[in-house]
Automatic annotation (TrEMBL):
Known cofactor(s): Zn(2+)
Binding site for Zn(2+): H130, H134, H140
Function description: Single strand-specific metallo-endoribonuclease involved in late-stage 70S ribosome quality control and in maturation of the 3' terminus of the 16S rRNA.
Cofactor note: Binds 1 zinc ion.
Superkingdom: Bacteria
Protein name per its UniProtKB record: Endoribonuclease YbeY
EC number per UniProt: 3.1.-.-
């Protein structure tokens, strides 16, 4: 498994962010029974940069807490059949499946942790889990989808012993 972490803004947290990010990504992969060696890219940015990315790729001109860019198309969430046929998702150098990219706003992590009354560690972990589930094909646009995604988020965070 390859996990690339870039801290564009040299954000400082009250915890070891690289260690936590790797732990959360690994647990998400395990809990969702992803059957391949994955590659995940995580970038920590700020509100200004994430707004630029959001505007460029989604046409939404505002900052957000996290953006997910999945590389795999799924018939249904966590349906990993057929990934071998999506050759553009296999890194030719490593043979790993490129799940996709996650972009976090350090500004929003800190603000939302305070707003929701929990730690920055919990907010950081939650946003990574949330994004990993998007990389596995989950969504939350419909109430039924949201319920399934929330259940998986809670299972993963509970397994990590990260609570509100």
């Amino acid at each position: 498994m390859t996990i690339n972490i870039i801290n564009e803004v040299q954000a400082k947290f009250q915890f070891h962010y690289k260690e936590l990010a790797e732990k959360v990504i690994r647990c998400s992969v395990e809990m969702e029974n992803f059957p391949y060696d994955p590659e995940v890219n995580l970038t920590i940015s700020d509100n200004i940069r994430i707004q630029e990315i959001n505007r460029e790729f989604r046409g939404i001109d505002r900052a957000t807490d996290v953006l997910s860019f999945p590389m795999i198309e799924y018939a249904s969430p966590a349906d990993f059949s057929g990934i071998e046929q999506q050759y553009d998702t296999i890194n030719p150098d490593t043979g790993e499946v490129m799940l996709g990219d996650i972009v976090l706003s350090a500004d929003r992590i800190k603000a939302q942790a305070e707003e929701y009354g929990h730690s920055q560690k919990r907010e950081f972990a939650f946003l990574i889990v949330h994004s990993m589930l998007h990389l596995f094909g989950y969504d939350h646009m419909e109430p039924e989808e949201a319920s399934v995604m929330e259940t998986h988020q809670k299972m993963i965070l509970d397994a990590l012993k990260i609570f509100r």
